Automatic annotation (TrEMBL):
This is Phosphoinositide phospholipase C. Residues 1-12 form the HTH merR-type domain. GO terms for molecular function: DNA binding; phosphatidylinositol-4,5-bisphosphate phospholipase C activity. GO terms for cellular component: cytoplasm; plasma membrane. InterPro entries: EF-hand-dom_pair (IPR011992), MerR-type_HTH_dom (IPR000551), PI-PLC_fam (IPR001192), PLC-like_Pdiesterase_TIM-brl (IPR017946), PLC_EF-hand-like (IPR015359), PLipase_C_PInositol-sp_X_dom (IPR000909).
Length: 237
């Protein structure tokens, strides 16, 4: 895969990475100096891209020098996280998330397995019983809090981060029904959206509303359609 193909792949799977960082990783993995990544080089690129230093730090704290979690150490971790610290639960986690078969056979959890566990729904603070709508959804719209997004246009911080229509697309595909557009006068009378009086980048208002038009109803919220029309959507200006 060439550098351009790698960039296209990242866009396809919706991973936002600075071009400079992509190029840095690409050069690091292109050990053959062929300007293309092949097989194991692509695998290494993906591994570097998915590094999670904060999870590695937690893993190192509980695993110690041997860099592996035994059943007892997993139980200690579960206990500190207010989970059920039983041996059965620790073994179950190994069976479900460990990628190395030898480690699994020896009831051990490697760093890769631990990261898989932490990034799974099991490691999510969100209560998954709320995935399904179980409340009374027959009331008027104004009786409910609707999934909303603040400063939707921002990809990063509120002072100097980039603005992007991609941020709107992500919010809408996650089910947001209320997004924010901070509108300002741009060059030649063209309205722009950005966090005013800051160093955040600007995007065209017309590009934002086009993205909203194209993605606002790609994701339907279960149980809502039978109560409210398709046009139920909010834009905060």
């Amino acid at each position: 895969m060439s550098l351009e193909e790698i960039k296209d792949l990242l866009k396809l799977i919706n991973i936002e990475v600075y071009e400079e960082y992509t190029l840095l990783l690409f050069k690091q993995c292109d050990r053959s100096k062929s300007s293309k990544l092949e097989e194991h080089e692509i695998e290494e690129f993906c591994q570097l891209l998915m590094q999670r230093p904060e999870l590695e730090e937690i893993f190192n704290y509980y695993s110690g020098e041997d860099q592996i979690l035994a059943v007892r150490e997993i139980s200690n971790f579960l206990k500190e996280q207010k989970e059920v610290p039983s041996e059965e639960n620790a073994v179950e986690l190994i069976e479900r998330f460990e990628l190395n078969e030898k480690a699994k056979q020896n009831q051990l959890l490697t760093q890769d397995g631990f990261v898989m566990y932490m990034l799974s729904p099991d490691g999510n603070i969100f209560n998954h019983s709320h995935d399904l709508i179980y409340q009374d959804m027959g009331q008027p719209l104004s009786h409910y809090f609707i999934s909303s997004s603040h400063n939707t246009y921002l990809m990063e911080d509120q002072l100097g981060g980039p603005s992007s229509t991609e941020a709107y697309i992500r919010a809408l595909l996650r089910g947001c029904r209320c997004v924010e557009l901070d509108c300002w006068d741009g060059a030649n009378g063209e309205p722009v959206v950005y966090h005013g009086h800051t160093l955040t980048s600007k995007i065209l208002f017309k590009d934002v509303v086009t993205a909203i038009r194209d993605y606002a109803f790609k994701v339907r919220l279960p149980g809502l359609e039978r109560h409210w029309p398709r046009a139920t959507f909010g834009v905060v200006l």
